[in-house]
Amino acid sequence: VREDQEILNIDYEKLTAKMEKLPEYREELKAQEKLWRQENHEENKHSLTQILAYLNNLTPQQKQYKYQQNPIFQLFELPEELIKRKHQNDWSGYSVHNLSLIEARALYAHLPEFRNDQEKQK
Length: 122
Fold this sequence. Notes:
With 122 residues, this protein is mainly alpha-helical. Helices cover 65% and strands 0% of the residues. The protein contains 5 helices and no strands. The N and C termini lie far apart (51 Å). The mean pLDDT is 90.
């Protein structure tokens, strides 16, 4: 029975990998993401406003403590262009674990769209 399960799992992974390469599948994912962005845009922006107000009301010591707790909050201080120029290795110190829904929405609203590294820069 285990051998049959393993064979089925391998077949499933192969089928999934093939499906993910299909242009129709990629377009469907893009459409779903675009719809999600549209439906959640206002809530994400509102969350960003809340987080920025919260960070602006902290004392320098409180901010430093917050940044030590989770360095990802430092991204709220950076302009879009600096975030876009970050190297892949620069992201290793950040973690989205333990973010509240409001913090995660704010981060999503603040981060710029990144190009896929597999695509050539135009």
